[in-house]
Inverse folding.
């Protein structure tokens, strides 16, 4: 596991339940790594799990691995894979990160790459303890320019599924990836800019219209690449807003804003805007949202 | 001949008008709270800062107790305007009323309650209210005024001269509307973007190098607003984008009021500024998707206050 924050911990702790899988985790957060090694990695909330995981801040300690899962924030992909690539000399590496463009980065360092998309969500509540907010499916498929073998993809999907993280191996993972990026780009920055949970944002008709405007642009950019989303983002957004689903969920970008951490805006709305420009599809609302969130990040550097 | 002025609403702007005008003319003040009127009656009103003076004035919270007056300056908050205008209905038959509220449409609200001659105004002066009876005069910038509907320009000039004689700055215009529109388009954009980003009005607002730089958004929002101003008839007097480039070029990094309101979790003026612009665009059939989104985001940000 490369990056053992909220999403990485969901995979790591669950996979560690399997008798036939040994899980290592690489993360730069010393407190998180020490807590995992001392007490195990604990999940609370949607599932109660204690995983015995070997964690390290030193990539040199990683043994050779058959499979890797990268779950860092998108802006940390490059440095994280650069130092861990040695562990995957004979293995395949999947991205389960947010946004678009991560697989391209992985492929510069490892030979066999898996395009992945995951929906479970949570947050680190204290070192070694992760609140599991939302269960959900994961989709894995080949990264077309530099693909993993279908046998490897199926092995990883099977392990995740047996561990309690339902995962499907597919031949084309782009529809799932664009479904998620369109969903996230429509909802994450709206939460971050307004400070509202997903449910409260969706209750406001004028704000819900902004979300739909972002969905429409993202769908158009996907369509220009002949990608048909594998689910309707609008239905997913309304489903997530239900009280018993993710009404109270604060988007990861909102969590970043509250902690004044850099956000993944460049890989979500910024990524859609970039693909849109290359494909000649106008994305004025995604441009606007990107500018606002980047402005918000810049405001933290003022005295 | 203006013998008595009534200041309607004694917040910062109302207090600045009241304190200065009381030096040259009889002034009565209509307050919202009875204690405020009592304090003004007992202690008078003190102005500090740019000018140092004390004014004696008659104050009341009861509209029926107001004496006759020739000029009413309506300075209450935009959110209170409907109630205040209704309380003046049937009174002050010979008075001219002047509105100084931010945003658009204050004159129309007052008009629904009486056929007084109306004067449109926007003010750039600023101050800080320290108590019910003390206000500090900080920025001595002008109040601009112009006729609304059939009000004769001579009447506007008379008010301009009165305000100037009291020591405040004023300038009369034959048509204030293009100036109101410039200010509205500028304010809706700069205030909304500042409130959401947390940025003061600094160089970010004029930066257009990259496609997702903030200046591109600011420019696009101002073009949308200018299109509404043109569809409404008056257009803009000064180009809002040039005003923006000029203001950010000074390097002072002014904190717009909507940003200060959001930081303090106070209600903002988003309805009378961005809301007014969006409703006007709807009425005129002008599409302004970016401003509509900005308006929704700021309203939602306000709804998030704890």
């Amino acid at each position: 596991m490369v990056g053992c924050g909220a999403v990485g911990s969901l995979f790591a702790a669950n996979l560690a339940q399997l008798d036939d899988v040994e899980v290592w985790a690489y993360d730069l957060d010393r407190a998180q790594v020490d807590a995992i090694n001392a007490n195990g990695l604990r999940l609370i909330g949607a599932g109660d799990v204690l995983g015995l995981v070997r964690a390290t801040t030193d990539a040199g300690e990683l043994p050779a691995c058959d499979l890797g899962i990268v779950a860092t924030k998108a802006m940390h992909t490059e440095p994280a894979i650069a130092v861990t690539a040695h562990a995957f000399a004979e293995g395949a590496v999947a991205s389960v990160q947010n946004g678009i463009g991560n697989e391209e980065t992985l492929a510069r360092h490892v030979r066999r790459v898996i395009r992945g998309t995951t929906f479970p969500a949570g947050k680190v509540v204290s070192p070694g303890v992760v609140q599991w907010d939302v269960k959900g499916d994961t989709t894995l498929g080949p990264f077309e320019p530099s693909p993993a073998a279908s046998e490897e993809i199926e092995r990883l999907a099977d392990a995740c599924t047996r561990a309690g993280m339902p995962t499907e191996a597919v031949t084309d993972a782009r529809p799932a990836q664009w479904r998620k990026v369109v969903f996230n780009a429509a909802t994450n920055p709206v939460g971050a800019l307004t400070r509202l949970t997903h449910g409260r944002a969706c209750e406001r008709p004028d704000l819900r219209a902004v979300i739909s405007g972002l969905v429409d642009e993202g769908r158009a950019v996907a369509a220009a690449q002949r990608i048909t989303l594998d689910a309707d983002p609008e239905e997913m957004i309304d489903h997530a807003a239900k009280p018993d689903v993710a009404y109270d969920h604060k988007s990861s970008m909102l969590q970043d804003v509250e902690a004044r951490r850099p956000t993944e805006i460049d890989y979500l709305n910024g990524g859609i805007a970039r693909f849109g420009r290359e494909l000649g599809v106008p994305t004025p609302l995604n441009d606007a949202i990107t500018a606002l969130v980047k402005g918000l990040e810049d405001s933290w550097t003022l005295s | 001949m203006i013998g008595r002025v009534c200041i309607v609403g004694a917040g910062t702007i109302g207090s600045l008008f009241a304190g200065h005008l009381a030096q040259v003319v009889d002034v009565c003040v209509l307050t919202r709270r009875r204690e405020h009127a009592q304090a003004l009656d007992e202690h008078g009103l003190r102005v500090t800062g740019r000018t140092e003076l004390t004014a004696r004035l008659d104050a009341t919270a009861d509209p029926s107790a107001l004496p006759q007056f020739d000029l009413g300056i309506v300075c209450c908050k935009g959110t209170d305007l409907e109630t205040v205008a209704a309380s003046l209905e049937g009174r002050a038959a010979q008075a001219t009323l002047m509105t100084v509220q931010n945003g658009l449409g204050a004159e129309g609200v007052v008009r629904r309650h009486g056929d007084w001659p109306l004067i449109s105004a926007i003010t750039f002066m600023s101050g800080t209210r320290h108590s019910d009876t003390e206000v500090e005069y900080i920025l001595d910038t002008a109040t601009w005024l112009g006729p609304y509907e059939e009000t004769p320009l001579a009447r506007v000039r008379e008010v301009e001269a009165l305000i100037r004689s009291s020591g405040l700055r004023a300038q009369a215009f034959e048509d204030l509307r293009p100036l109101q529109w410039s200010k509205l388009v500028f304010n809706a954009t700069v205030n909304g973007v500042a409130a959401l980003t947390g940025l003061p009005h600094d160089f970010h607002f004029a930066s257009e190098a990259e496609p997702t730089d903030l200046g591109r958004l600011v420019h696009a929002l101002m073009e949308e607003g200018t299109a509404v101003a043109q569809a409404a008839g008056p257009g803009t007097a000064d180009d809002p984008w040039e005003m923006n480039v000029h203001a950010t070029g000074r390097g002072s990094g002014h904190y717009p009021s909507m940003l200060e309101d959001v930081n303090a979790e106070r209600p903002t003026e988003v309805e009378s500024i961005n809301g007014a612009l969006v409703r006007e665009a709807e009425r005129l059939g002008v599409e302004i998707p970016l401003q509509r989104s900005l308006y929704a985001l700021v309203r939602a940000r306000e709804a998030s206050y704890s």
